[in-house]
Amino acid sequence: MGDKVHIIFSKIRLGVFIRRLVTLPGMTAITFIVLLRMVGSLQFLEWAAFDTFMRLRSEEKLDDRILIVGINENDIRAKGHPIPDGDIALLLNKLNTYQPVVVGLDVIRDLPRASGHQELIKTFRNTKNLIGVEKVLPDRSGYTFNPPPSLPPEQVGFSDAIIDIDGSQRRSLLGTSNQKQEWRLSFPLKLAEEYLKTKAVSLENVENDPYGMRFNSTKLIRVQTNYGSYINTDAGGSQILINFRNHRKPFRIVSLEEIENNKVNPDWIRGKIILIGMTSPSAKDYVNSAAINSENPALIYGVEVQAHVVSQIVSSVLDKRPMINVWMDEWEYLWIIAWGFLGISLGRIIRSPSKIILYTVIAGYFLITICYGLLVIGWWVPLVPALLALIFNSIALAAFYQYDEALRARVEERQLVIDQTFDAIHSNPLQTLSLLLREIQSDKDLENQEVVNKLNQLNQELREVYDLVKREAITELNSFYLRQSQKLDMQQPLHELLHEVYEDVLKRDDSFFKNIKLKILSFESMDEQNLSIEHKRSLCRFLEEALCNVRKYAQGTTKIEVICAQEQGKNIIRVADNGSGFTTIGNFSLHTGFGTRRAQNLAKQLGGKFERLSNSPGAICQLTWSARKFWF
């Protein structure tokens, strides 16, 4: 029992080792993909996936709380560029007659522009709901611009944009320090703050976060250094991911001319947020953003970006529209690893090329659907690295496993040829040679003709080895050749096969076995439901070897017992004789030839036990294994 348990656990440990070995390429792939993400090599692909999902979201309704007054090409042709200060003053005064909540002027006015400068200064001083713009962070050329000089600081917000390294804008800077280390708020945040004041909602700081901001219970989720696909990014100040409103025309846009000529519905202005900015290509006030499903793909005017940020903040506070959040780094990498392990499982379980592709496509579809659904409700989770881990570990590793199996199969085929060759030599020529040597060494007075006859027999048996191995190689799996002239049908019950082996060996060595007066035989039905064809072949060879050993070693045998049956829940093959072969039990333990090693290996495969025992006189050679299902 102890030996059997030891065998079982040895096989378990071997199985665990093999599983670890075949899992190693998959773990290497997962590690490589995780490292690629950690150094930022997958940022571009992840941004592209993010932009695609943002465009694929269901269409949202137009935000009628915001109106954009876009100064277009017609306005520029009529007024000139830049638009004169006097026309800006008239526009502001006109808009205020409709009583908007707040007006944002996204037009540079740090210096006088043409005529009407005094009128504009007066308008700035009298318009308390006006927010102007400045640029506080220098660009590569060091360029900044000041706010309108007549506006107080509390009526100014910066319009600096954060552009990712692929040239697109996905983030909005809400707060930062200027060159004088003064904390400043952004233009869209100031507009949203003024509007929300009318709803009794005020801007506050977040506890334990000096850069955090919130409106009542609504926290503006701040971008960190590692945030989603952003790796080691500059997260200075207070930044948020822009949750662009998905609509081809998310806001109403009217022209300067339409305002001047009273062609705008007053209800579009009254109680609303008004943004004034350039919507002319010649003004070049636009950025790239592939996340927007707009009339001009990938291009969006600066004033429209500001409107999206204002809408995002206001909608988050009043409508509970989600901000874009991400998981902690640990959860993101566990997510990637989990999908990688799913790929490993698919690659190991499914070996059919068409099926592995099908199941990988299905798993990939679920992954994409989950990531899309989470983004819709405000959670940005890693898609690209998880998808790469899934695809590589399923399809690529399936191909690797198939190659590995094919290589193992070729090795096993070659080993099988070697084993079959040795079996063919061991079963007949070596037996004949062994008998001849024993007779010569025992000083028997052999006649020359008798030696010649045995050598001729050996010569014939050696010549038959090639034909026998060739037949074994090309024969059907269910057939087995004991000798060139003896073919066994492996579909027969095991006890019938063993009886045929017994009959063949007796015919082969008739001169020896006919002198045995007492033969005790028992060939009964055995439990073979868990035996493979190879197991049955090996059992036939075992009985053949045991009977041949009686011929070789059991001198003076007068009784032989051959039992092939089921006893006490165990299958047993036992060959016992009363010859004068080995004389002590020590001889049995020391005899470890090829046949013994093969019998021991077969016993391990069956989870059974091989024994060679003293019979006083004679020897017992037996193999037992459980009639119940063995594990391996």
Automatic annotation (TrEMBL):
Keyword set for this entry? Membrane, Transmembrane, Transmembrane helix
State the Gene3D superfamilies in the record.
Answer: Histidine kinase-like ATPase, C-terminal domain
Residue ranges crossing the lipid bilayer per the database entry: 21-45, 333-350, 357-377, 383-401
Q: What is the name of this protein?
A: CHASE2 domain-containing protein
Q: What is the lineage of its organism?
A: Bacteria, Bacillati, Cyanobacteriota, Cyanophyceae, Nostocales
Domain CHASE2, by residue range, is 42-346
InterPro entries according to UniProt: CHASE2, HATPase_C_sf
